[in-house]
Design goal:
Number of helices: 23
Largest sheet: 6 strands, mixed
Radius of gyration: 26 Å
Helix content: 40-55%
Number of strands: 10
Length: about 600
């Protein structure tokens, strides 16, 4: 986090403690209990004057319960958690903490926190949560925390605004401009904004400690490690909230609404690590998902095997179109909280109908108006508009530059709101790709994949963009992995596998994959099969596909070359694809009418 515009001046111990409490109690600070203890420990030790003792060994023992044999080279738990903590602090200060006076960061290269102060704010700006305003505390009465030298020399104009304010201001300009365009398309809803937890309503998953089904310390250590790894991987999915203790409402009662428990066990059988996992809906104790996972620990070793199984479990539970997102549009009609609109989006992407598109679009438009700082809903609204550009023949829309421009503006705004949000980076990747900027697209895609490699939609879309940009080996590997993890929508990534096989010359495998895809999802899927059938010389079968396109999507025919060049970056790939179309009996030369 940059320090430009921040004065590194004295902050009282009480102010720092209040800021720590503010962060830990915020809904925007979405980390498990262990990572919260990490932050609390390093802040408390620094306030006590023991910052020099904040080493990986000390933190591992105090926070993670490791013994005196802890080796940071073999066990990277502290380093991994520190990275997650840095990302989440950045997210907090870009959202709920945008007006906070005290800035807590943990610079890379160490674990000791730094306390920066917004120069233009007064100590009274920091209030104990749930207490009325009172005068600021004088530094003479409490210990002072100094974070370095004054930074005003880098700001000669005297402005005291943090870069976060400029990010939010720029985002506000974009979203207002976008809203003006949106309001011309649909009737404006009430200007009343939702506030508090009800405006979010994301499902909460409590990850219970996995049980050890075998005796001995090794099985116990693995069960504990599996639990921690699952939490670490689940936290990266921004559509859900992950906790390690039962959430309670304002009255102190346990709230079971939208609450799920992830439970499981681990047992060792020789070199085999066997795990079971299940997701339980707390409201009625129904088991809504369960699965078994086995792995041979001699292949990768214990840490990698444990992490791999944790990734599989987290992906199965939280992946888009997976367990948490299986619902009908009818159950969420009329609701505009964030999660209902997210469900509406995934329902639309599964159906790919004009009606479902309008339902999801309308929901997301209203949600963005009510929750402009929610990076997820802004990103999904970007994708909704982008679909009008890339799926125009299915949705009966026009692929205009204005539509693409709005999608890109929204994607950029979503990334500014949360630079580590995989869905926002995915939206930016796709917007840049269709804006004919493959370098920027792949850069955003790499960021999305690094942020959450277990998100199958991110992995699959990034794989498609790599492939279509000419990096077929890397891209097809990711697409294959996404398909292997049941990535949705059903039949969507199979067409990517068909293209992968086609471009490597395996036309028989290409036809099989193409027929496994959802041919009614988008007319472009039919076009892929048409090209493959043409290359195989299957004239009659190609004729059937061509007749379908002429009947169901005639507007596509005169624009085939344009659509192919929009998606395939390399000239040789375009030629191979178009040659198949020509062999199928359809001319794609500019200005020529299609053959009968």
């Amino acid at each position: 986090m940059t320090s430009a515009g921040i004065n590194r001046i004295a902050a009282s111990q009480e102010e720092v403690e209040q800021q720590l409490e503010r962060i830990l109690s915020s809904r925007e600070f979405r980390l498990p209990e262990r990572t919260r203890k990490f932050l609390e420990f390093v802040v408390t030790e620094t306030l006590a004057g023991r910052r020099d003792y904040l080493k990986a060994f000390t933190i591992a023992q105090a926070v993670f319960g490791r013994d005196a044999n802890f080796d940071a080279q073999q066990d990277p738990c502290v380093r991994i958690e520190a990275g997650r903590l840095r990302r989440e602090l950045e997210h907090y200060y870009l959202t709920a903490g945008g007006t906070d006076r005290i800035i807590i960061t943990i610079p890379k290269g160490g674990y000791a926190p730094v306390f920066d102060v917004i120069g233009g704010a007064e100590p009274a700006d920091i209030l104990p949560l749930g207490q009325p305003e009172r005068p600021g505390v004088s530094g003479a009465d409490h210990g002072q925390i100094h974070a370095g030298t004054d930074a005003t020399s880098r700001n000669p104009g005297g402005w005291r605004l943090s870069p976060r304010y400029w990010l939010l201001a720029a985002g506000a300009v974009i979203i207002l401009a976008s809203a003006a365009a949106l309001l011309r398309q649909v009737e404006s809803p009430s200007a009343e904004r939702e506030a508090g937890p009800s405006a979010n309503n994301r499902p909460t998953i409590i990850v219970e400690r996995f049980e050890s089904g075998s005796g001995g310390n090794l099985a116990s250590d693995i069960s504990r490690g599996m639990t921690d790894d699952i939490i670490e991987k689940l936290v990266r999915f921004n559509d859900i909230v992950v906790v390690t203790a039962m959430p309670r409402n304002k009255s102190g009662q346990v709230s079971a609404e939208s609450l799920y428990a992830l439970q499981g066990s681990v047992r060792l059988e020789g070199s085999m690590l066997r795990s079971t996992a299940r997701l339980v809906r707390r409201a009625d104790a129904a088991v809504i998902w369960a699965s078994n996972y086995d792995a041979d620990m001699t292949v990768q070793g214990i840490p990698k095997t444990q992490a791999s199984l944790a990734g599989d479990i987290a992906t199965a539970v939280a992946r888009p179109f997976g367990v948490m997102f299986q619902t009908d549009t009818a159950t969420i009609a009329g609701r505009t909280d964030a999660f209902s609109c997210i469900l509406s989006y995934y329902s639309y992407r599964s159906e790919m109908t004009v009606q479902a598109h309008e339902v999801a679009k309308s929901c997301l438009q209203r949600a963005v108006e009510k929750m402009p700082a929610d990076s997820n809903v802004v990103a999904l609204l970007s994708l909704i508009h982008l679909d009008e550009f890339r799926f125009s023949y299915q949705l009966h829309t026009k692929s205009t530059a204005a539509t693409l421009g709005l999608a890109k503006q929204l994607a950029e705004h979503a990334v500014r709101l949360d630079p580590k949000n995989a869905r926002a980076l995915q939206a930016l990747m796709l917007a840049n790709f269709f804006d004919n900027d493959p370098a920027a697209a792949l850069s955003a895609g790499a960021g999305a994949y690094a942020s959450n490699p277990n998100d199958t939609e991110v992995a699959g879309e990034y794989g498609l963009r790599l492939s279509m940009s000419g990096e077929w080996d890397r891209g097809c590997t990711l697409i294959s992995e996404a398909v292997g993890k049941n990535a949705g929508p059903r039949g969507y990534y199979e067409v990517g596998m068909a293209l992968c096989a086609f471009m490597r010359g395996d036309t028989q495998a290409a036809e099989l994959w193409s027929r496994m895809s959802d041919l009614n999802y988008n007319p472009m899927h039919r076009l892929v099969l048409l090209s493959i059938l043409g290359a195989l010389g299957k004239k009659q079968e190609a004729k059937e596909q061509l007749e379908w396109i002429r009947r169901e999507s005639p507007a596509l025919i005169p624009h085939i070359r344009q659509e192919v060049t929009r998606r395939l970056a390399r000239t040789e790939d375009q030629r191979r694809f178009l040659a198949g179309i020509e062999a199928a009996g359809l001319s794609v030369q500019d200005g020529e009418a299609p053959k009968d």
